[in-house]
Structure formats: C-alpha cells, structure tokens
Hints:
The protein is of the alpha/beta class and 397 residues long. It contains 18 helices and 8 strands.
Amino acid sequence: MPHDYVEEELGRRSVFKSEQFLSIDYVPEALPHRELELRTLAQSFKTLITTPGRTSQRFIIEGPVGTGKTAVAKRFTEQMVQAAERRGIHLHKLHINCRINKSEYLVYLRMLREFKPKFPRRGHSPEELLQMLVEVLDVEDRYLLLILDELDYFINQRGGNILYDLTRLMDDRLNAPQRLSMIAVGRNIPLDGDVLDSSILSTLQRNLMRFERYSSEALYAILEDRVKIAFENDAIMDETLQVISDIASEHGDARYAIELLWRAGKQADRNRVKIVIPDYARQAKVDTHPELRKEIFATLPIHNKLVLLAAARQLKEVRSAYVTMGEVEEMYRAVCEEYGEEPRAHTQVWEWVQNLNAHGVLDTKRSGAGQRGQTTLIGFSDVPAEMLERFLMELLK
Ligand SMILES: Nc1ncnc2c1ncn2[C@@H]1O[C@H](COP(=O)(O)OP(=O)(O)O)[C@@H](O)[C@H]1O
Ligand SMILES: [Mg+2]
C-alpha cells in the first residue's frame, strides 16, 4: 500500500478545535476591556434609533494597531443594526477599509453598491455617486452607519476631503432626514484645519475616543476567551497564556497576542504533542514581529518590496539606525538583478520611498547638514532589519 498522506493528515490529532476563531477577521461576541468604549458609542449613537432621521452622528476612534478598534466598531454597529431592526428601522452598517479602497470614488462606489449592487464601475463623478446614494436612502427610507476604517492611510495619501464631503452631505440637509452617520477609525487621523472648517473640526474633536494599548492582564482575558472556542480542552497551559500576554503587552497589541497563540499551537501540532507549552510561545516570538503584517506587505507592488528588501539588507550591513537614500538605491539595483527585475529610475524609487513612509512601513528623515551631506535617511523604527529581510524574501518567493 502506498503511503496515504491525506488520510494521515486527516487522522492527525490537533490542539485546535476551530482554528478559524484565531483569524484576524473574526470578531468575538464579547470584547473584554472595551466595555467602556462600547458604552460610550452606544450613548452617542442611540439617537439614530430613538429619533431616526433627526440627527446624524460622527465619531473618531484612534489608537495603535491591535487595540481592538476594528473589532469594537464592527461589534457596535452590529448591535445598532439589530436594535434598529427590532424597532422597524432600516439601519445598515457598512465597513469600508480605506487602505484597500484608495480613492474617494472607490469609497463612494462601495457605499452606493451596498444598495445598488450592480451599479456600474465607471461613468460618474464622486459627487454624483454621493448624490445618488442620498436619493436611494431617501426613496427606500434607509439609514447608513458607515465605518471608515484605516482612514489614516487614506488621508495621508489623499488629504481630508473625504471627511469634508461626507460631513457636508449631512449638514447640508437641514430640513430633510439625516441618513448618514459615520465612525472614522485609524492609528491617528490627521484633522487638518485647512480642509475642515472649524465647526466640522470641533464636532469631530469632541467625539474622539482614544484606545489605549492593552495591559498584560487585558490580553490574558482576551486570549482566555479565544482559547475556549479555538482549542481543545486543556491544550493550552496557563503558563503559555501568561508568557504570550507578557510578550504582547510590550506593544499592547491583541492581534500580535492572537498570532503568537496560533503559532504556538501550530508548533505543538508539528511536534505532534497535545499540549502547548510556554516555549512554543517564546519560539513564536522569535519567528514573528507585530509590525510585519502580511496584509499590508502582500498588497505592495513587487518593486516596493524590492526597495524594502534593499533597505533591510543595507541596514543589516551597516548596523546603524539609518542608511542613506543613495546606499539603498545601490542595493536596490543589486536586488533587482537577483530577482530578474529591471531597476527603475531614481525619481520613481524616491516616490515609492515617500509612499512607504506615508504608509508607516518605513521612516524617512533629512540628514543634518555636514554629517553625510544633505540627504534622505531611511530606517525602520521597530522591526529588526534581519527579520524584515527574511520576511520579504519569503513574500517574494
Ligand atoms: N477586547 C477584545 N476582546 C477580544 N478580542 C479582541 C479585543 N480587542 C481586539 N481583539 C482581537 O484582536 C485582533 C486585533 O483587533 P483589531 O480590532 O483588528 O485591532 P485594530 O483595529 O485596533 O488594529 C482581532 O482579531 C480582534 O478580534
Ligand atoms: Mg483595524
């Protein structure tokens, strides 16, 4: 009999009961340590249900990666929709990731398509899309609660006009029902006095909530819930959870904590043991880094990855906090050769570096005059260069 790899894999015992509960998109029912934030949102938005159409609400949620911003926004809007439904109000929620929908046009199209799924992709201006959206909401007597997620990326690229447009859309309708409310989410959202007039600005600033990093205890509570649904009974040692909470509390990042938990479980499966010991968590820490988020890097065009790889290699080589633009370009040409790609011109590379900076992937600063001449310096604030190099080479495979 030939070896049956499929049967073997199917018959293999795993420490996981339901791995999908550890995916980044899963939003648990309960969100420990965010009760206050959820209550604040409920207090602000309840008028959408008690007096539908009378007011529109806008809110900003800011905070570092992995502090539960997206999870809270999604769980909250879900509860709003259900409460509205029980009272016969047609409230819709819509979560838009502004890092993926990169222009006003795409965001507005996504909004309109929520109600007109087949609406054509081309042929209208952004303003027309918004106007049509308002019409649909009016005609069908619906309300929309919008989450603009990762809006900081968007505003860094395209400015704050989107906030202006959407706020105006609400404020211009003094005698008609208010149909649109929104929650803007980001690490920090640059509120620019040039774009937003002062009344819009002050409303937004009043409704701003900052999510703080999770403590080790908070992360422990979050993981404890997740372990119950994702793992077999007694598969995770208490010490393992403790170690993960401590490691991840350096960044206060629940996403990182959950990733460590998942990786530690994977290690147990690879070793064919039924218990996830603390050492697997420590090993997972060595293999991963909270800033290296696949969903950001995977969507970058190949030459952006090559520039990053060049910067990582150069940083590793010179062992200083920053390298010059010139050094990175030289390394970039070598890297292109290695990957069989034609290197692009200086102005193009320069633009990518600015772009990657705007996305928070790398840091740039001007060198002080004298030291190394006036040039742009490139560095990574958080990630060890060697780890970034390995990560990128893996992605470029
Ligand atoms: N209070 C919490 N309780 C349970 N899970 C949480 C909590 N906060 C965050 N998470 C989980 O951690 C991960 C990261 O949270 P997320 O909301 O995506 O963070 P952010 O949007 O701030 O980067 C998600 O998988 C989320 O479900
Ligand atoms: Mg998020």
